[in-house]
Amino acid sequence: MSIFNWLLLAGSAAVLIGLSLYSMRMAGDKDEAGFLVANNSLGPFVAAATLIATGYSGFVFIGSPGVAYQYGSLELFSNSFYTPAFLMATLFFANYLRRKASSFGSQTMPEYIAHSHSGGATGRWLQGVVAIIILMLLGVFLISQIKAIGLLVANWLDVTPTTGAFLITLLVIGYTMFGGLRAVAWTDAAMAIGMVFGSCVIAYVVFVQIGAGELVAKLDAIDPKLANPSTGAPYGDSPASALLLLPYAFLWATALPFMSVRFLAIKKDVRMAHVGIWVAVLGILLNFTPLAGLYAKAYYPGLADPDNAMPTFLEHGVGPVMSSFITLFILFAMKSTANSLMHTVSTALSYDLRLALGWRRGFTATMTFNRLMVCIVGICGFIGMAYMPPVMILWLGILGNGTLMASLFGVTLCATFWQGNGAGAFASIAAGFAVSGYLLLGTDLGWVQGPLYGCLASAACYFGVTWATRRSPSPAAQRA
């Protein structure tokens, strides 16, 4: 099976690299718009698939089963909120963002934030600050994705987790650096199909081969609270805390640059309702993955690491050939997010920081420099994974994603309804970053509650500081 798995990996790698090279040819080797926003060429299915594949990533296939293994069936309920959240983001936010960014000529989210709040030197400072925060926090999330990849690939290819992570990191660097966002979107669309198949197989094993009744009985024998949770752990004290994932996931899709940049890449004549239909279909079919964690808890309750729940399901719940294919599809899920993170972080380096510093010509303005930054970001992510202390993958992802979401909440979502100024933008970014980071690192508050409180702080500072610093028109201006 190890040889078979290597052949599967080699075949999928050839397809992904081929798509990347073809997308590079379609965009043009020197077209930076193709690298950054895919020349605004994404149709409904590809746009929905890249959004879902990126959102339903390693945390859904490795982290979410791990949470279900550790805390019980509440994860099935909480995981289901991502689909309506992504659907609402697509229907009620994407079109506004696409039109406004197009009017500014913005090709990245930091550039969009800078253009919508200020111009000149203040705008460059704002673009640079947002880019630096993206580097820090999405770098943390990238590390969690690479760790998840290493855990999955280790048993599949019969290598160490570090070796597996290194091989897949090189592959993701390869197809991301050549084709940019177009390659990311096209490869995500291919990978989303495999992800849906893997999720449906998990549902078939649990509901048809085993039966939900038998699974619940085995969970009750271990601990009745696994099938009937009395708390909302790890999201809060009450089971109702899981409801917080709905606003959390909505903010994820709208405030996180590696998600919202996809809205900038959709064709101008595409109706968002058509994208939303595909988002709903793909999202619903991907909501079965926590069942793998409950299966592992019921039959193998002694795992030392909850994040091994999915590998345990694949080893014992399905046959070896099916296990190989599902592992490949799960690997697709993690790669779909890893390539998005590499693309977003590298463009923050190669494009946003460059513009913030006023470097508009020379080597830093070439596609070679963009691709070099993808390579550097990927290698740094792997090195960070190798020296990372042991933590749960899902928590590490929330630390990076949640804090970034809180930092950018004011300047993205709040700015949709009420336009602030540069001072309000800086204040909201600082407040969201500080509050969410402190609550996640320094308290025992629920995982999603810290970022949500950070969003509230970001909004309060966005409105308050803007109101306090916005100058009233002079009497002469008022008369004019």
Give your account of this protein's structure.
This protein is an all-alpha fold and 480 residues long. The protein has one domain: Sodium/glucose cotransporter, CATH 1.20.1730. Helix content is 79%, strand content 0%. The chain is built from 23 helices and no strands. Helix 9 runs antiparallel to helix 20 and helix 13 crosses helix 20. The longest helix is centred in the middle third of the chain and has 50 residues. The termini are far apart.
Fold topology:
Layout (H helix, E strand, L loop, with lengths): L1 H26 L4 H6 L6 H12 L2 H14 L2 H6 L2 H11 L1 H11 L4 H9 L2 H38 L3 H50 L1 H11 L1 H4 L17 H11 L1 H8 L7 H14 L4 H10 L9 H8 L3 H37 L10 H20 L6 H25 L4 H21 L6 H21 L5 H5 L1
Helix pairs in contact: 1-10, 3-10, 3-14, 3-15, 3-18, 4-9, 4-16, 4-18, 6-13, 6-15, 8-9, 9-10, 9-18, 9-19, 9-20, 9-21, 10-11, 10-18, 10-19, 11-16, 13-20, 14-18, 16-17, 18-19, 20-21, 20-22, 21-22
Summarize it.
This protein has a single domain, classed as Sodium/glucose cotransporter. It has 23 helices and no strands. The chain has helices at residues 2-27, 32-37, 44-55, 58-71, 74-79, 82-92, 94-104, 109-117, 120-157, 161-210, 212-222, 224-227, 245-255, 257-264, 272-285, 290-299, 309-316, 320-356, 367-386, 393-417, 422-442, 449-469, 475-479.
Structural features:
23 helices, Sodium/glucose cotransporter, mainly alpha, 480 residues, disordered C terminus
Globally, the shape reads: globular
Task: Count the E strands.
Answer: 0
Question: Mind telling me which CATH architecture this is?
Answer: Up-down Bundle
CA-CA gap between termini: 79 Å
As a percent range, the share of helical residues equals over 70%
Order of helices and strands: HHHHHHHHHHHHHHHHHHHHHHH
CATH topology category name = Sodium/glucose cotransporter
Work out the helix count: 23
Number of domains: 1
Q: How much of the polypeptide forms β-strand, as a percent range? A: under 5%
Category by helix and strand content: mainly alpha
CATH superfamily: Sodium/glucose cotransporter
Q: Please give the CATH class.
A: Mainly Alpha
Radius of gyration, Cα only, in angstroms? 22 Å
Low-confidence runs: 473-480
Mean pLDDT: 85
Major sheet attributes:
none
